[in-house]
Write a structure and sequence with these properties.
- By secondary structure, the protein is α+β, with helices and mostly antiparallel strands.
- The strands form seven sheets. A seven-stranded mixed β-sheet has the order 17-18-16-15-21-22-23. It has a six-stranded mixed β-sheet with strand order 3-2-1-5-14-13, sandwiched between helices. The protein has a two-stranded antiparallel ribbon with strand order 4-7.
- Strand 2 and strand 3 form a beta hairpin.
- Helix 4 packs across helix 5, helix 10 packs antiparallel against helix 12 and helix 12 packs across helix 13.
- It is globular.
- The model has no long low-confidence stretch (mean pLDDT about 95).
């Protein structure tokens, strides 16, 4: 009997393969970064062929490090950076240009035209989403309008669209030979093309955007006992293993954090920052700038929905401090630098590098650093960088409390930044609720492993998964209310300074 489940974690900056045992513990891991391509200001691209090569490499690397073979895997799940868009030829596997990354703002003109015609909420009733550069639909339209070969192939039925889990699943299950062209409901819900209630592509929106239905993948459950295909003996796994679980990265973290009950929430601190709240079996419309999205679906059951607050720049702000300003040489050094001062000295940084996502949805915004005096030094700036992540999360929690009608009582956290004690303490302080880190912080990959393992019976059900979760550390709020509210008022003033920068 297979003793492990594998998970491909295809993220914004790297691809990993993580092998988990039945207790949800990591048995093997390998990781490779891929190139970030910035062709023009506001444009962000990835090479999908590089990502597929890296995926093969990390699968082989993790199996080798774990000292096991592919036949020891019961199943493989995939989790991925969402909204990132690639079109390719279904007969050759060749992409039509680079993938357009979720952060990219090149579709601003397309979105502004749609907003003028229909309003920013023109598709929200059906999709749960505002019209924004964030989502895949406008990206598909841009590729079809700017790559003549893609348009010609699409009209002939020779082109495939996918977000990154679709691309990886297609290759894992055979590629041009017999690869399955599928997307799970969580990723489909991020395209601006799927009806939240019917879980089908919406013909009206497809006509408005000029997207042929033939290029779209089949929408499937996240946890699918009718698995989509098998890996091959001569592929990177080296064995025939079912591919049967997929979740967008933030929904995967929700599953990995065991947020299966209505009202449970988690926040992931990665390149961006994403807070999801389980709202149950009915979609909850947002009136305060959040997204209504799919949380997950199990084959044979109804979907589970979530409210989400999406922040574009979180860990990426620390990368900017390191790579663009050269103030630190390694990301963890930001905490040491920030700890040299007691506060930010009145400095605020709002990282609207590609506009502001939830709850503002302002593509005209650009980043600002305000409150500078001769007193401010690089330690104050480092502290302001960390506080920006905390304040952006509070913006989301404020909106979520209003939409759900229930105040957050605690926050489960995961992602690379949760080992920054200064940030986590500030997060508890500015939210005035406990912040809890689990023992297994790789919850995104774990969620994808759970999806695949549940599909093949490696785990019996959600109740068994709950036994795998335990807290590692809890930060209790200790900031005085007056200080907390004063700091947040300053943040709100700083956010206002970012508006109307791009005409």
């Amino acid at each position: 009997m297979a003793r492990y489940v594998g998970a491909v974690d295809q993220g914004t900056t790297s691809t990993r393969f993580i092998i988990f045992d039945h207790a949800g513990r990591i048995a093997g891991l390998d990781q490779k970064e891929h190139k970030q391509i910035f062709a023009r200001p506001g444009w962000v691209e990835h090479d999908p062929s590089e990502i597929w090569k890296n995926t093969q490499d990390v699968i082989q690397g993790a199996l080798s490090k774990a000292g096991i073979g592919g036949s020891d895997l019961a199943a493989i799940g995939i989790t991925n950076q969402r909204e990132t868009t690639v079109l390719w030829n279904r007969h050759t596997g060749e992409p039509y240009g680079n993938a357009i990354v979720w952060q990219c703002t090149r579709t601003d003109g397309i979105c502004n035209d749609l907003i003028r015609e229909r309003g920013i909420d023109g598709f929200r009733d059906k999709t749960g989403l505002p019209i924004a550069t964030y989502f895949s639909g406008p990206k598909i339209k841009w590729i079809l309008e700017n790559h003549p070969d893609a348009r010609t192939a699409a009209e002939k039925g020779d082109a495939c669209f996918g977000t990154m889990e679709t691309w990886v699943i297609w290759w894992l299950t055979g590629g041009p030979e017999e690869g399955r062209h599928v997307t799970d409901v969580t990723n489909a819900s991020r395209t601006l093309l799927m009806d939240l209630r019917s879980l089908k592509w919406d013909d009206h929106i497809l006509r408005v955007l000029g997207i042929p239905r033939e290029i779209l993948p089949e929408i499937v459950p996240s946890i699918d006992a009718d698995f989509w295909g098998m890996t091959s003996n001569d592929g990177p796994v080296g064995a025939q293993v079912p591919v049967c679980g997929a979740l967008g990265d933030q929904q995967a973290a929700l599953v990995g954090q065991h947020c299966f009950e209505v009202g449970q929430a988690k926040n992931t601190y990665g390149t961006g920052c994403f807070l999801l709240l389980n709202t149950g079996t009915k979609p909850v419309p947002s009136k305060h700038g959040l997204i209504t999205t799919l949380a997950y679906q199990i084959r044979g059951q109804g979907p589970v929905y979530a409210l989400e607050g999406s922040i574009a720049i979180a860990g990426a702000l620390i990368q900017w401090l390191r790579d663009n300003l050269g103030m630190i040489s390694k990301a963890p050094e930001v905490e040491e630098l920030a700890n040299r001062v007691e506060d930010s000295g009145g400095v605020y940084i709002v990282p609207a590098f590609s506009g502001l996502f939830a709850p503002y949805w302002r593509s005209d915004a650009r980043g600002v650093m305000v409150g500078l005096t001769r007193y401010a030094n690089k330690s104050h700036i480092a502290r302001a960088v960390l506080e920006a992540c905390g304040y952006q999360t509070r913006d989301i929690v404020e909106a979520m409390n209003k939409d759900s009608g229930v105040s957050l009582t605690h926050l489960k956290v995961d992602g690379g930044m949760v080992y920054n004690d200064l940030l986590m303490q500030f997060q508890a302080d500015t939210l005035a609720v406990p912040v809890i880190r689990p023992k297994v912080a790789e919850t995104t990959a774990l969620g994808a492993a759970y999806a695949a393992g549940l599909a093949v019976g490696f785990w019996s059900g959600l109740e068994e998964l709950r036994k795998n979760w335990s807290a590692d550390k809890t930060w209790e709020p200790r900031m005085a209310e007056e200080e907390r509210e004063k700091g947040y008022r300053g943040w709100k003033r700083a956010v206002e300074r970012t508006f109307n920068w791009v005409e």
